[in-house]
Design a protein that fits this description.
Layout (H helix, E strand, L loop, with lengths): L23 H4 L9 H12 L4 H19 L7 H22 L20 H19 L3 H11 L5 H8 L3 H21 L1
Organism: Altericroceibacterium indicum
GO molecular function: DNA binding; sigma factor activity
Keywords: Sigma factor, Transcription, Transcription regulation
Length: about 190
């Protein structure tokens, strides 16, 4: 059983015996640091009918904390009414929070939503082999084609900058890069 005790030192002060027609929490005054267990059970039932079970404990705790804070300031003459007024306030706050965060539209994130790629030794070896295969194919390209491709893909130069550096036309740069891409793609497909 989930129990809140708001008494100093963690001890609950026991009240009088409840009659069948009158709840214990309505017959007693909430004294500084005291709340009856029956009131909290009733609040728990109130929340169980209105929110998800996973939220109930936190909401009952919020009620208990608000009452604890209020008790320090003044006495409460009608404790049952006050406890349920606080419970309704906590319920409204909970609803507002859910609406503003659009929690009804959230989806629980599971591991399968975000698969993590493992860097297994086999995968690392396969990647290293593929990289070596591409580098070998790059070395087989004609010098000018390889130079244009490297300047564009690895140095991130524009076609016009490559044309100036290699002293060729922009269309010649385009042809060199297209030739490099075709030959590298063919080499990758063969490998």
């Amino acid at each position: 059983m989930f129990l809140f005790e708001l008494c100093g030192g963690g001890n609950m002060i026991r009240g009088s015996v409840a009659t069948a027609d009158q709840p214990a929490c309505s017959r007693q005054r909430l004294e500084s640091g005291q709340i009856l267990q029956q009131c909290l059970r009733a609040v728990r039932g109130f929340f169980m009918k209105r929110v998800q079970a996973s939220d109930v404990d936190d909401m009952v705790q919020n009620v208990a904390l608000r009452i604890q804070t209020h008790l320090a300031a003044e006495r409460i003459d009608n404790p049952e009414r006050y406890v349920f007024q606080v419970a309704r306030s906590v319920l409204v706050d909970h609803h507002r929070k859910n609406v503003s965060r659009m929690s009804g539209q959230h989806e629980t994130l599971e591991d399968w939503h975000h698969p993590v790629e493992e860097l297994s030794p086999e995968r690392i070896l396969a990647g290293t082999d593929e990289l070596q295969h591409v580098l070998n194919a790059l070395q087989l390209l004609p010098v000018r084609t390889r130079q244009a491709f490297v300047l564009h893909r690895f140095e991130h130069l524009s076609y016009s900058d490559i044309a100036l550096q290699m002293e060729i036309s922009v269309s010649a740069v385009e042809k060199h890069i297209m030739r490099a891409i075709r030959k590298l793609s063919a080499a990758i497909d063969e490998g």
